[in-house]
């Protein structure tokens, strides 16, 4: 038994069909925690529990914190989440519903993370949101499921925050013999730490995050994610917040599933029909999900971004 579920793989008639292209959606939004993060975090939590951890500590007020809460509840291990003040009341409530103890501390992730780290005792495990090889091995199972379904992608579209999802998908591609299948790595403008690192050919740190796609808001990507840009075929793309939100709304209408702008970014490049994607017969899109945006919030962003 795993803490995550096997998710549907859907050939989207709404998104595919152009130039004989099939668009395959890997529906990670349907994980019990609402995002793909449960795969890697579930795997890491199981491993840390096996090594004797008696408590899990996270400093994410978003989908990572929620996945730790969900994993801890299923394993019967107590969870502490130190979330920054910017964390919405709704996100706090979702984590508490999963029986996590939620402390709110600090103006940003930096302060919350410092307090969380200071709380880590000998019998605790700190669960990083993206930079841990155990996470990547867990995320890789989504590609195993695609292989078992008998689908061979010729490119994978995914969103990049700190790059944990990307490391996991590449690990999955390679362990299924798909070393040459390129990854289209998508970020929003203002959270484009990978795109700027590729451009500079060094792992840069953004001075601040200037995007509503908060789940992509890692100021610096993991070293392993940056290293893959030299070892695996890759294409980096950046979309606007407005395009990401528009994609969320369109996806909601077409597929009846609510996702965050962090996920909408990936959907946006497919909806835009980028010429670079036109040549792929079987395009796999990781619908990474996310629970931090409500329908009302998406509609609100749509209005304010259109006005600006
Ligand atoms: C965490 C997250 C991402 C980014 O994942 P990384 O592993 O940080 O690159 C993208 N979308 C959603 C919904 C997320 O929760």
UniProtKB/TrEMBL annotation:
Cofactor field: pyridoxal 5'-phosphate
Coiled-coil annotation reads none
Q: What SUPFAM superfamilies does the record point to?
A: Tryptophan synthase beta subunit-like PLP-dependent enzymes
Q: Cite the entry's keywords alphabetically.
A: Lyase, Pyridoxal phosphate
Q: According to the UniProt record, what class of enzyme is this?
A: lyase
Known catalytic reactions: L-serine = pyruvate + NH4(+)
Q: Which domain of life is it from?
A: Bacteria
Q: Which InterPro entries match?
A: ACCD_DCysDesulf (IPR027278), Ser/Thr_Dehydratase (IPR050147), Ser/Thr_deHydtase_PyrdxlP-BS (IPR000634), TrpB-like_PALP (IPR001926), TrpB-like_PALP_sf (IPR036052)
PROSITE patterns named among the record's database cross-references:
DEHYDRATASE_SER_THR
For this chain, the family text in UniProt reads: Belongs to the serine/threonine dehydratase family. Belongs to the ACC deaminase/D-cysteine desulfhydrase family.
The protein here is known as L-serine ammonia-lyase
Q: Which organism is it from?
A: Massilia violaceinigra
